[in-house]
Design brief:
about 325 residues; alpha/beta; six-stranded parallel beta sheet; three-stranded parallel beta sheet; 11 helices; about 15% strand
Length: about 325
Amino acid sequence: MSTAFIAGVRQLYPDAAIDVIIKKELSSIAALIPGLNRIHPFSKKEFNGLNGVYRFGKSLRSEKYDIFFSLPDSISSAVMGWATGAKKRVGYSKEGGFFLLTKVGKRPRNVHRVEEYISLLEQFSGRTVTGRQVKLDTENTIELNNLVLINFNSEAESRRMPVDKGISMINLLTNTFKQNTFAFIGSPKDADYVNLIYTNAENQQQLKNYAGKTGLVELVNLIAGAKLLLTTDSGPAHLANSVGIPVIALFGAGNENNTGPYNKANLAVIRAGKLNCEPCVRNTCELYGIPKCMQFLDEIEIINTLSLYLKDA
């Protein structure tokens, strides 16, 4: 979601060298973000706690940065920015890091996270960012694979498809769209969950399983070449949205108006809307134990939405 912010910085400061600090495990994807100068991978394991982030920030003092934008709304990010010695340090201040910032932004209410980021830039610069779009650059690496990608997992348990619902859903998909091949995706830590659905599904000849078998850049390229992605509220939803393929996003606990895929083209959001508690925006379902908001998703509505893009038998 930060790619639109980076594009905004390039737009307002066309002569600036833009460096980014990014989680080490995500750093490979930074090569797909247009206009970056240097990439600084950050590891919480190597630089643990506030002392660790201070040491990491201090290691960048030789860069002599003019401006440090702190997108994570955390005290640790503010400490890191202060430690770099940047002349101007800009961010929001939810966790009390205001005394480490030279410019504290006023967070807009009830807007998408992308708009929150861009608002910080606009408040600092006094100018408006136009043509807002979340985008990764995969134009030179796309290889069409004709797959329908499936991501039922999510980092948060409350946003993850229950296994029995996932099995029922994939069986309905393969029995309805018999001319298509469906491929599961996921990280190595998702593999056991995905395998449980994959091995218990019907019509194995229509299925592939890439969970735990791709690196991050490989995953982006796989997504970029696919027909579409059917996904829960998760990282792959944003990746697919950023490379422009159709995304059908299934929401329950998450708030699609704040953290859903940002680009509206080729995007469909489906939620059950049968529970008063949704969206609770919690990471676990404290009321039911399992995410009933995902269990109640209308399979016919999902099939009808996929029918806009896929041929049936």
